[in-house]
Known about the structure:
This protein has 213 residues and is α/β, with parallel strands linked by helices.
Amino acid sequence: MFANHADPVAVGHVTSLAQPGGNVTGLSVVMTEIVAKQLEILKEVLPDRKRIGVLAVSTTPSTRPALHAIQATAQGLGVQLLTVQVRTVGDLDEAFSMMVRERTKGYVALASPLLRSQRVVIAERSLKHRLAGIYGPKEHVEAGGFMSYGADQEDTARRAATYIDKILRGARPANLPVEQASKYELVINLKTAKALGLTIPPSLLARADEVIQ
C-alpha cells in the first residue's frame, strides 16, 4: 500500500485509479497537476523571467510524466524551461552551476527521495547562487528553501490508515480505488525570500497556508 504516490497510473503501478487491478492501492498526490501549479506559483514571484529551471532526478519513475506536464504548462505561460537532471548527490553542484550559467533565477524541484534527503544542501546551494526554488514537501522550506506547494502529508498519512484497516479486515487492494490527495498547502519562507532579494506578491502571501518568518 502507498500513502504518497506521485502518479501510480503513469508509472504503471495500477491499471486505473478507480480499479487498481493488482495487489497495491492507496493515495496519490497527482504530481503531474502539482508541478504545473508549482510553475504557475513561481512565475507569480518571477513575472519577468522567461527561463526557469527544472531540477529533476532522472532515476525517479515519476520524473518523465512530471516533465511532460510541466512542459505543457510552460508553453501556456510563455516560459522556456531548462531541465537539469541529476542521478546522484554528486551531480547537484554542477546542476546549480548550470542554472546560474543559463541565467535562470528560479527553479521547480520535482519531488524525489534523493532531493528530499538533500534538502539542507539544496537550500544552501540555492542561497549561495541566489536561486528561488519551489518544492513539493514543505520540509524543504523548513530547511531554508524558498517555497513549497504539495499535498498535506499529515492528512494523507491519516487517510492511508483507513486503507490499512480495510486491508487488515480482508479487503483486496485490487478492489479499493486509489484516492487522490484532497488537501494541499502552500508554504513560504519569508526569511529566505529576503535573502534572495525577492518581494512576495500580497495576493500570494494571502493564499499561503503557512509563512515561515
